[in-house]
Amino acid sequence: MVRFKNRWILIEFLPCTLPPSPDAAAELSSKDVWGALKQSVIANFGDTGWGAVGASLNVKYFSPRTNVCILRVARDQHRIAWAAATLLSAIDGRRCVPHVVHVSGTIKQAQLAAIRHNREVVARYRARAKTPAAYQDSYEEFLQASTREIEALQD
Q: Is the separation of the CB atoms in 10 and 106 below 8 Å?
């Protein structure tokens, strides 16, 4: 029996515009990200590219709060998926800049990279806010919740 070898790609989608008002359109979902990736693969690599990537491309995790996404794709086609993600300019009409943070061979390493990335982003927010070290904020709760959610991912 042969097992399928995958690559796990951690991507952060940096928004190009100011965050919309709370009354604006709904947040992005993993389905929106998958659809945008599909259109990017078809536009840049054609039907042949989608035929190679489409069967294995899967959005395993997406956080609309941090715009961080974990993709699973077959090992042989991961460069097509990586390129398609890099060439994205908008998701569901919202302009963004994709930043590939990490590529790994196991879900565990992708999870660890996502948790590490979340901690770095929160540290940057705290440094920008210039809050004292002992100050309690909602970031700690967010880190705990996102860590539990990321660790719960299964292959």
A: no
Give the DSSP per-residue string, 27-91.
PP-HHHHHHHHHHHHHHHHHHHHHHHHTTT-EEEEEETTTTEEEEEEEGGGHHHHHHHHHT--EE
pLDDT mean across residues, the chain: 87
Three-state SS for 109?
helix
Q: Are residues 91 and 38 in contact, defined by beta-carbon separation less than 8 angstroms?
A: no
Taking 60 as the threshold, does the pLDDT of residue 141 lie above it?
Answer: yes
CA 142 – CA 26 distance, rounded (Å): 20
Looking at the DSSP bridge assignments, the partners of residue 8 are 72, 104
What is the number of other CB atoms lying within 10 angstroms of the CB of residue 56? 18
